[in-house]
Amino acid sequence: MKSLPVIFLLIAMLTACSSPPPRVEASRSMIKNDQVLESSDLVPEALWEQLSNRKNNELYEFNDIKITFGNKYFSALGLECRKVFTSEVTNTNDDKFERIICKSNSSEAWYLMSNVIDNKNEINLGN
Predict the structure, then answer these.
(1) Cα torsion for 9, 12, 14, 16, to the nearest 10°?
(2) Would you say the pTM of this structure is higher than 0.70?
């Protein structure tokens, strides 16, 4: 008889853990995609196709900058983004800077996103 409350408690715990939490979706965005891209630098058009088609860890040289392409992903705002690692061609120390480049949803343009933390990872791709 004393085992009945323990069994009931175990069953209650197992059923509570078996269902996922409810999925919550925002009905409207607090930040518009256009606002995010307005504060970013436009990537030269010559790189747009490279950003779309290059595989992970591929190396590409552009304007004396070595670009290593990282993973593609979708940001929280729904933008297609790609991590890139950059360094100067003349750099012998293999110092690479990580940056994020995102594609506009309304065009084929890609934008170099602003750093969240000011960490001197400034690169100029030609614009």
Answers:
(1) -140
(2) no
